[in-house]
Each structure stands twice: as C-alpha cells, then as structure tokens.
Amino acid sequence: MIETDSARKVYNEDVVAVGDVSLTVEEGDFVSVLGPSGCGKSTLLFMLGGFIEPTSGTITVNGEQVTEPDPSRGMVFQESVLFPWMTIKENITWGMKVLGVDEDERDRTAEEYIEMIGLDGFQDAYPNSLSGGMKQRAAMARVLAVNPAVLLMDEPFGALDAQTREKMQHELLDIWSQTGQTCVFVTHSIDEALYLSDKVVVLGSRPSSVEAVIDVGEHFDRPRAPEVRESETFTDLRQQIWDMIEDEVTV
Fold this sequence. Notes:
The protein is α/β, with parallel strands linked by helices and 251 residues long. The chain has helices at residues 41-49, 88-98, 103-116, 132-144, 162-179, 190-196, 232-245, and strands at residues 2-11, 15-25, 30-34, 56-61, 64-65, 73-76, 150-154, 182-186, 199-205, 208-215. A hairpin with a 2-residue loop joins strand 4 (56-61) and strand 5 (64-65). The model has no long low-confidence stretch (mean pLDDT 90).
C-alpha cells in the first residue's frame, strides 16, 4: 500500500530532516513510527500525506506516486483542529460535503461514526464544550468519514492525560479493526507503539534513517488485550527499542 524509496528531505541545502528512508507498509497494516525528538517522524508523515515534497527519492501509495494531498490519505493531527464554529456533526460531514457527497449519505455516515466513536448525544455540541479526548474522537471521525485508504496520525494522543490516552488507544484499535484501513501512526511512546502496531519503525537521527523494523505481530495476536503490556515479551521488545534510541535522546 505504501512504499518509500530513499525518501529524503533536506532544508537550506544542509539540514537533513529525513535521510534516505526506505520502507514498505502492507495494506491493512498498523505501523507506528518512533524515534527521538527531531528525528523526522512528523516530516516523514507529512511527506506520506503529500503536504511536503521529498528533496529526493519517491513515495508511492497504492502504486501512485505521492505529489500532493489527496482524500485517499486522511490525516489526524496532535491537536484536534476542529472548526470551532461548527457542531460535531457539521465537522464530521464537512469533508464529505467538499467531496460532493449528497446530504442523506452525509447524515447516515455521520451518525454511523458518531456512534462508533462514542459521541452519541454530542452531535449538536460545539468543540469548545468537549474534553480533549472527545475532540480527538471527533477529529478521527471527520477523517474516517471520507473513507481514506490510508490513515496518517501525527501523535494524536500526545496532548492527552495518561488515563485518557490509554482509553483512546483502546478505542482506536476498536475503530481500526472495523475499518481495516492502512494506518501509519507517529508517536514518542515505545509502549504505545508496541501496543497498537503490527510493525514498529524505529528512526535514528544521525541523520534520520530507519534503524530497525520490529514485527510486533509475530509476538502478539489480534485483538490485542491490554494485558500484553505486562508480558515478558513486551518488556523485552520495549528494552530492545530503547537500546536503539537511548544515546540519541536529549534531556
């Protein structure tokens, strides 16, 4: 579904944000990208979305080279970026309206996702009346409603408290299991990456490149129970990844 071939991004001719990243993401996989701050995780994600053009190399999605943003690649940001003047339902239907989906279909789809993300009763609420977790659920629903083939998520739970973040992880897996979309998820959290993913791509930062691809699916089945976090295998994988990035983490 996604293939990057020596994708590289350089700013001002000498600042390497992403260095020669080559990786493959299979259709329907959930892949997390993690690494130390400044390693180019978000830049890579924005290149996958078509928001940033690589300096060299190529990125293809479903066999087509990525040159610009496209509705087939939905993006969820760290901040919910909902339109504050629109209700939750209006936010969710906005993308479909832009794409020319008729009103009846927009309403049906919005109701489906409002129920799926657990916001029944809040469809007429405005974003400023919702908690951070509720806003992120609405933001995910707005992206999912246009049925993108690829879901790109840039630390969507990074601003949430620990309890809400864990709850959102469970809900995301529930939603993803129903939609079957290919997902690339950027995070700083090793535990989050291991719990959510089929594979974890570890980026280094000298310069940014793929240090390793950890096949989590070899160790943990789907659906994934929260108890896997307490397993010896999970602990071993966490340490393996930490050993890769420890020297590059700044404090």
